Amino acid sequence: SKKDGRKILGLKEEEQVILFFGFIRKYKGLKYLIEAMKEIKMRLPLCKLLVVGDFDGDKEEYLRQIESLEVEEAISIYDGYIPDNEVEKFFAACDLVVLPYESATQSGIVQISYGFEKPCVVTNVGGLPEVVLDGKTGYVIEPKSPSLISEAVCDYFTNTKELIFKEQIKNEAYKFSWERMVESIEK
Questions:
Q1: How many angstroms separate the CA atoms of 157 and 36, rounded?
Q2: pTM of model > 0.90
Q3: Using 50, 70 and 90 to split pLDDT, how confident is the model at 172?
Q4: What is the distance between the alpha carbons of residues 6 and 10, in angstroms, rounded to a whole number?
Q5: Beta carbons of 36 and 4 less than 8 angstroms apart
Q6: Which residues, including other chains, have CB under 8 Å from residue 156's CB and lie 6 or more apart?
Q7: How far apart are CA 103 and CA 10, in angstroms?
Q8: Who's near 11: CB < 8 A, 6+ residues apart?
Q9: From the CB of residue 172, how many other CB atoms can be counted at a distance below 10 Å?
Q10: What burial class does residue 81 get, using C-beta atoms within 10 Å of its C-beta: 0-12 exposed, 13-18 middle, 19+ buried?
Q11: Above 90 in pLDDT, residue 106?
């Protein structure tokens, strides 16, 4: 549950938690999300970003950016490969998953998010806009834009979209289920 995930991670129930999950590579646009946190933190003081994944040698660059923007208290980093049995607590604890990619073909993170009934903010690159319905299961924004990331995150929390998005995600998640795949193969 969200409550259990937050307890394990030492997060408060009232915090608004954003998750960036997966291998951390330049093309995944983490720097734009970190930059957006300056504005997000001003508008949503209880917002917290979890950066979870294995850095590709650029960790110091991100840490310098976090320090220069003075958002250290708003960002928690879990550096390293996350084994399958550790994934659940992060997705359970979060409210919203952000994939600010500069480029992509596809990402399994969206399907994992849907499995936990979590909406996503994705950029309009690769196949990401095909799996996230803008305004229904998350947000599709243009890449390389901290201001658009901030707008999407703030809209989600200030307009309390959790229940609306959750219901749409349940409807959409079936498209990506094993049951649906079996039906397609049988046809």
A1: 15
A2: yes
A3: confident
A4: 6
A5: no
A6: 95, 96, 119, 121, 139, 162, 165
A7: 33
A8: 5, 17, 48, 93
A9: 17
A10: exposed
A11: no
Please give the pLDDT value at position 176.
67
What are the CA-CA distances from residue 179 to residues 32, 101, 110, 132 (Å)?
Answer: 37, 30, 18, 20
For tokens 């084994």, the residue is 83
d(C-alpha 162, C-alpha 8), whole Å: 22
* H-run or E-run covering 151: helix 146-158
Residue-by-residue DSSP string for 52-113: EE-B-S-HHHHHHHHHHHT-GGGEEEEES---HHHHHHHHHH-SEEEE--SS-S--HHHHHH
Q: How many CB atoms lie within 10 A of CB 113?
A: 28
Burial of 132 (0-12, 13-18, 19+ CB in 10 A): buried
21 and 90 Cβ atoms separated by less than 8 Å: yes
